[in-house]
C-alpha cells in the first residue's frame, strides 16, 4: 500500500495531510425521496428493500442494484462490477447491504433511462443498522451526509480508503501539529490555526469554514515563498556591496535627452528615477524592468549606462540573440557618438583578429559600453572597470551565466530587463527578491496594431489586402509554430509553405528564416529583409524577440491556436515599430469555442500586461512560463489569479518580519517553514490508516 500512496506523491504523514481534496461533494442536503429533483447533490435516509443483480448483455459486467425506500418513495443505487458471476455478486452484496437495514445514501439524482425512476449516481452508502429516526440524523460519516472530499487517486487506491487513512492521520497526529505562524500574524490577518485548517480542508462542516481553511493554507504556501525571497534579499544586501553612482543634473543623461528627437514618456522617466535611486544607494541594485514591446526600454537602459560612465565605470549589456544584440548596438552607437562615447559589439561569430582588437579596447577602457551575447562571458573578455551590467530578456539566461558576467568586476550593479510582460502576481512569486519596475506606457504617435482572427477560408481576402500593402512598399512576416518541440520539423513545415507561396505569388520576393539556419545565414536573411530585398519573410518563432524592421506592417500567424497569448503578443510586436498603421492576422481552423474566445482577447487589446494577465488566468503559471522554466515554485492550493490579495498579505508580512528579525531568531517555526517538511516514515503513514 505504501507504494500505492507513493504514486500520488505521499511519502510522509505531512504529505498525506497535504494531499488536499480536488473538490467536495455537497451531500449536506438531506431530503425525503418524494422531494428529489434531477441533478441535485443529496443525502437520504431509508431502509433497504431489496438487492438484485444481473449480467449485462456484454457478459463482462455484472450490475448490482440496491433499492432504498423511506415511506415517501423509493430510489435505486446501481453498481457495475466486472468479471463476477451473478450468484457470487448477489451473495456478497446481500451481506454488505442486508435487507431491512437502515442506510444513509448520498449522490447525484438522475433518472434511469429505461424505468424513468430516480436513482443516485456515484452514490456513497453508509449502513447505519437498525437505528431510530432520531439517531439517524446524529450519525456522522466520512463518506455521506456532509461535504465529502474527493481526492486525486491512482490505480489500487479507493476514495473511501484514502478518506479513512487521512481522517485517522488527523486524529492521531493532531496534537503534534505546531503552528508555524506567530499569534500576531494569525490575529492580524484573522487566519485559522494550522491544525484546524488541515482538518477543515479535508472534512469541513460547511462551505464558509472550508473557504477559511483554504485561505489559511494558501497563505502558508505563499508566505513560505515570500519569506524565502525576503530573507534572500536580506542576505544579498549583507554580502554584496554597492558602487553608489550619482546622476548629475547637467551630466550625460541631460545631454542625451536634449539630443533625442522625441520626449520620454512619463513611464520611462519614472522607471529611470527608480533606477537612479538604486544606483546612488548604499545597497546593491536588484531591479527587474518590464516593458511591453516598443515601450522604450533600450533608451532607459542607455540612460542607466550613462550614469555609470560619468562615475568612471564601464557598462555591459548581454542579450540572448545576435539579432537583438546587434539591434541594441546600433541604437547605442547612434545615440552615443554625438556624446563622444564608444560602444563595442561582442559576438561569437566575429573573427579572431576582430575579437582580439575589441577585447583590447574593452580592457583599456576605450570602450564605454560592450554589447553582446553569451560571448561576453568568455574568459578572454576583460573589463577595465565594469560597473553596471544589464541583462536583456533575463529569463533566457541561467544563474551561472549571469554570475560569470558579474565575476568580471568586484561588485558591479545588475539590472535585468524583459519585453515579456509578467503578471504582477507571478512577478511577486518568481521575482519577489527583486524590485519590479514597469514601463507601462507606449511612446506617443504609435498606432495600435489592428488584430483580426481569421479562419483559413478567409485567407483569400487577407492576401488581397496584403498585396495592396506590399504595393505601397510595406513588408510582411508570416510565422509558423514549433511542431512537436522540434525545430527540424518546424523548419521543414516553414520551408514547404515558403515554396508554395513562391509559386502562388511569383511577383513577390520571399525570404525564409528558421532555427536550423546557421547564425551567419540568419543574419544575412534578416539584413536583406531589413534592407527591403524581401517583401515577405516566412519564419518560425525565431523572430519572436528583438527583430526591429519599422517598414514591416503586417504579421500573419498561422495555426495561432498553438501559441500562448503572451507569445502571440510578442510576435505581434514585431510590427507597429514605425508610425504607419500595422496589422496582425491570427489564422486558426480550431472549432473550439474556448480557443477562439482566447484568441479574441488579442483583437480587443494591445496592452501586453492585460494580455499576460488573461494568459495566466487561462493557462495557469506552469504552462504560462513553460514547464521547463526554472524558478517557478510548486503551488498546491494557491491560484495566482484568484489569490492575489492573499499573496499581497503574505509578501507584506514576510517583508515586515525579516526587517524586524532578519535571521528569524525569535521565530523558530518560521525557520522550519522555509527549510523543512515534517518528515515521518512510510510505515507511520500506513499505521495512521
Structure description:
With 689 residues, the protein is α/β, with parallel strands linked by helices. Helix 8 (207-239) crosses helix 22 (644-660) and helix 10 runs parallel beside helix 11 (297-310). The protein is built from 24 helices and 20 strands. The protein has 4 domains: 26-147, Beta Barrel (OB fold (Dihydrolipoamide Acetyltransferase, E2P)); 183-239 and 644-681, no CATH class; 252-439, Rossmann fold, CATH 3.40.50; 450-605, Rossmann fold. It starts with a helix and ends with a helix.
Q: Outline of this structure?
A:
By secondary structure, the protein is an alpha/beta fold. It contains 24 helices and 20 strands.
Strand residue percentage: 15-25%
User: Which percent bin holds the helix content?
Assistant: 40-55%
Q: Helix- and strand-based class?
A: alpha/beta
Question: Whole-number average pLDDT?
Answer: 84
CATH class type of the largest domain:
Alpha Beta
At the fold tier of CATH, the topology name of the largest domain is Rossmann fold
The CATH architecture of the largest domain comes to 3-Layer(aba) Sandwich
Broad shape = globular
Largest β sheet strand count, sense and barrel closure: 7 strands, parallel
CA-to-CA gap between the ends? 10 Å
Separate helix tally: 24
CATH H level, superfamily name of the largest domain: P-loop containing nucleotide triphosphate hydrolases
Q: In total, how many domains does the architecture comprise? A: 4
Assembly form of the protein: single chain
Low-confidence stretches: 130-139, 676-689
Spatial extent as radius of gyration: 32 Å
Widest sheet, order of strands: 10-11-9-12-13-8-14
Strand count: 20
